[in-house]
Amino acid sequence: MNKVVYIGTDGGATTSKVGGVWSDGSTVSTKLLQASTNSALGPESVVRSWVEAINNYLSQNSLTWEQVGGVGLAVPGPFQRYGVFDHSANLPDSFALSERAGRPIPLTVGNDGDMGGVAEAQHARGDSNGTVVMLAPGSGLGCAYIDQRGFALSGDTYAGMEAGHMPAPLH
After folding, report:
1. Backbone angles phi, psi at 59, to 5 degrees
2. Pairing of the two strands 79-81 and 132-137
C-alpha cells in the first residue's frame, strides 16, 4: 500500500508554496514547490493554479492523488469568528479540489499567519513547551501567537490575536 501524504499550501497574493508531510509528520522533501497564483486573472484562475501546483508537487515527488489524505490551505484574510473567514482575498466562494483528485479530499483552510506560526513554533521551541510569537512580513504582515499546547490563539474562542490584517490609522 502507498504511504499517506498530507499536503500543505500557502496561497499568497502572488505565489503559492506547496509542501508535504507523511502521516508520521516527517517531511516528503525540504524543497517547496513555488508557483504563480495568476491572481491577475481572477479568483477562478487562482484556484486552478493552486490545484495545478499541488499536482506538480505530487508528480515531482513521485506521489499520486490516491496517496493524499488531506490538504491544508493557508490563505490571507481576517476571521469573522472562529473558523469563519470574513472574506478571502484571493479565493472564489467555492471550488472543487476533488475534481482533480477524482475523489473527495479533506480540506482545512486557515489564516496563513496562524498556520505558519504553528509550523514555525514546532521548530523554534524544539522539545520545550514555550509560547511563540511569529511575525512574517511579506506582501502583508503575517503573525501568530502560539500557546504552550501548540495552538494558534486566534478567533473569538481562543481570545487570541489577529494583528496581521488590522487596518492602520490614517493620520
Report:
1. -60, -45
2. unpaired
**CA-to-CA distance for 129 and 121, rounded, in angstroms?**
10
Q: How far apart are CA 108 and CA 71, in angstroms?
A: 6
Q: For 68, phi and psi rounded to 5 degrees?
A: -75, 120
117, pLDDT greater than 90: no
To which H or E segment does residue 130 belong? none
Alpha helices in the chain (DSSP H): 43-60, 97-101, 112-125, 155-158
Residues 18-68: tens digit of each pLDDT: 999 999 988 999 898 999 888 788 777 888 888 899 999 999 999 999 999
Q: Please state, in angstroms and rounded to a whole number, the distance separating the CA atoms of residues 35 and 96.
A: 19
CB neighbourhood size of 33 (10 A): 20
